[in-house]
């Protein structure tokens, strides 16, 4: 496995791969501290492509002033071992100065799909996401890029970015990887106390209950949202940040014509804010 931290090195290697016509290149962008969810993305990319590249970069532009950029968990040596075991051919792990070495000449703004869910309370977050991914997509020139469905809003925004600027690549969403009790794998789970860890799986249980309610009772979106919220409020030692039920991937209010529905929630514990979601196809009323 090749390990590099300079843009010019990444571009040279990718250009050589392309010149060899060795098949498709799969790309997995990450912020490191890899867990089974990330490894599932790498393994999926390995199965689909001749070459697999992974980036490990804690992107400062997607963190707000009061967010956890400085304390975000980092362990590069461990990440490199895990990426190698999962089948990566290359890991690109640049310093922030390599990606943002000067004052920006062009800035990017994500203008849709961002004023709901996590985007509502994190102004500028998705501007940072589309900025860094535009850079990474140009550097790595992938044929396919892999993202977990746990952050379904991010997937929706990235699809919009790729469509808007005609990037010649395919976005591959991969199902959320979960613990045995249903808790979505997340780098932030390490910040849960023992008691919070026992309570956290109730997020997913509440979302599943909301989907079941929607299938049996055929309620409107607000009724589904209220049903999920009531369930989430039973979680001890936590505060519900939001619950929303929207059309997916547009992330707009549900209408009679909406077919794909997302129910998403964010819950704050003492040391971690966890997100989860369920997406389903609405049956005919």
Structure summarized in a few sentences:
Helices cover 39% and strands 19% of the residues. The protein has 10 helices and 9 strands.
Describe what you observe in this structure.
It contains ten helices and nine strands. The chain is an alpha/beta fold. It has two domains: about 1-175, HUPs (Rossmann fold), CATH 3.40.50; about 185-280, 2-Layer Sandwich (Pantoate--beta-alanine Ligase, Chain: A,domain 2). β2, α2 (about 35-50) and β3 (about 50-55) form a beta-alpha-beta unit. The model has no long low-confidence stretch (mean pLDDT about 95).
Gross geometry: globular
Low-confidence stretches: none
CATH class of the largest domain: Alpha Beta
Strand order of the largest sheet: 1-4-3-2-5-6
- What is the number of strand segments? 9
The largest sheet is: 6 strands, parallel
Radius of gyration, whole Å: 19 Å
Q: What's the overall average pLDDT, rounded?
A: 94
**Ends apart, CA distance between termini:** 52 Å
Pathway: Cofactor biosynthesis; (R)-pantothenate biosynthesis; (R)-pantothenate from (R)-pantoate and beta-alanine: step 1/1
Pfam family, one: Pantoate_ligase
InterPro entries: Pantoate_ligase, Pantoate_ligase_C, Rossmann-like_a/b/a_fold
Subcellular location: Cytoplasm
């Amino acid at each position: 496995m090749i390990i590099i931290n300079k843009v010019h090195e990444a571009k040279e290697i990718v250009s050589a791969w392309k010149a060899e016509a060795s098949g498709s290149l799969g790309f997995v962008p990450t912020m490191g501290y890899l867990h089974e969810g990330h490894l599932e993305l790498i393994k999926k990319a390995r199965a689909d492509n001749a070459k697999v590249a992974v980036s490990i970069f804690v992107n400062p532009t997607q963190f707000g002033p009061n967010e956890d950029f400085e304390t975000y968990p980092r362990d590069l040596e461990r990440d490199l071992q895990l990426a190698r075991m999962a089948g990566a051919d290359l890991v690109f792990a640049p310093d922030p100065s390599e990606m943002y070495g000067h004052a920006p000449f062009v800035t990017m703004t994500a203008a849709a799909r961002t004023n709901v869910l996590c985007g509502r309370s994190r102004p500028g977050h998705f501007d940072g996401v589309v900025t860094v991914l535009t850079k990474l997509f140009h550097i790595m020139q992938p044929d396919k890029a892999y993202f977990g469905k746990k952050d379904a809003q991010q997937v929706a925004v990235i699809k919009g970015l790729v469509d808007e600027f005609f990037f010649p690549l395919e976005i591959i969403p991969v199902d959320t990887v979960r613990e045995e009790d249903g808790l979505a794998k997340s780098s932030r789970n390490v910040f849960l106390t023992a008691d919070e860890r026992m309570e956290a799986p109730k997020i997913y249980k509440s979302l599943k209950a909301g989907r079941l309610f929607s299938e049996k009772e055929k309620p409107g979106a607000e009724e589904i949202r209220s049903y999920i919220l009531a369930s989430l409020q039973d979680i001890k030692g936590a505060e519900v940040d939001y619950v929303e039920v929207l059309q997916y991937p547009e992330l707009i209010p549900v209408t009679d014509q909406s077919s794909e529905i997302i129910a998403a929630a964010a819950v704050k514990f003492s040391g971690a804010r966890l997100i989860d979601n369920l997406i389903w196809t609405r049956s005919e009323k």
